[in-house]
Every structure is written in structure tokens, then in C-alpha cells.
Amino acid sequence: MDLPAPANKKPPLEQVQEQFAHWRRSRAKRGAIPDALWQAAIMLFPDYGLHRISKALRLNYTDLKHRVNAHRSTCEQSEVSTAGFIELGLSDPMPPGECIIEMADQKGASMRMYFKGETGLDILELGKAFWSKPS
Questions:
Q1: For residue 72, which of 82, 80, 84 has the smallest C-alpha distance?
Q2: Which terminal residue of the chain has fewer beta carbons within 10 Å of its beta carbon, N or C?
């Protein structure tokens, strides 16, 4: 039992080749390739390589490459632009920093301090005060 082909199925290379041949036979004079034919050629990529498409359809390889790249970039842009609103939780972008300071002098006196978040303390001055205390 044969199933009908899906409507969005890409046309095979031979079918597009026949469309180009018909257009070349039936056109009155030299002119630009219709957009519908260019679109059919572009849709063959990536199922077929650019070289194979350009040879089979007798197209300029560079022109085909530019059109395929332009089509791909517009498809990528439309995919990116379809993204909806994304909420980022930036109320607390970074966790507060933690700091442990331990000091000991030669006489055995020691001090340990734990800070979380910004303290505004001058750590260098704190160390100077600890080590310069009177004996």
C-alpha cells in the first residue's frame, strides 16, 4: 500500500532539474532565474551538496552558495526572534563572599574572624592593630 507523500517533503534533485529544463526551454529571452526556481534549488541543500546542485541545475556555484547562506541566516534569525520572554532571576546575582581571617602572634595569642558579605573593614589595619598591641 503506497502512502501519499507529505506536503512539506523536499523535491528530489531530478524534479527540480526538470523544472529548470522546462523554464530554459520555454523562456522567450535571456533573463533572471525566477525566485521560485532559486527557492527550489536552495531547498535541495543540505540533502545534496552545493557542487552537485550547481552542476545538475547548471547554476553558478558562487551564486548558489550566497543564496543558500542568506537563506540559512534568515532561518536562524527567525528562530532566534521567535523566542519569548525569558525571565532571569537577577535579584541576587552573586552569593555574598565569605572570608575567614586567622591571626596568631609569637606569644600564642590568636584571633579568628568570619565575615560574610561586604564588611567595609580595612583588613590590613586590623592586622596591624593585632600585632602592635602592647605586651
A1: 80
A2: N
Angle at 42 between CA 40 and CA 44, to 5 degrees: 75
pLDDT digits (tens, 9 = 90+) for 76-135: 666 555 556 767 666 666 667 788 888 888 888 888 888 887 777 787 888 888 778 775
d(CA 12, CA 14): 5
With a CB cutoff of 8 Å and minimum separation 6, the contacts of 47 are: 10
Contacts of 34 (CB under 8 A, 6+ apart): 23
Provide the grid cell at 91: 535579584
Total residues found in the chain within this entry: 135
Contact 10, 43 (CB under 8 A): yes
* Cβ neighbours for 107, distance < 8 A, ≥ 6 positions apart: 135
Separation between Cα atoms, residue 100 and residue 22, nearest integer Å: 81
The model scores a pTM over 0.85: no
Exposed, middle or buried: residue 49 (CB in 10 Å: 0-12, 13-18, 19+)?
exposed
Closest CA to 40 of 55, 25, 57: 57
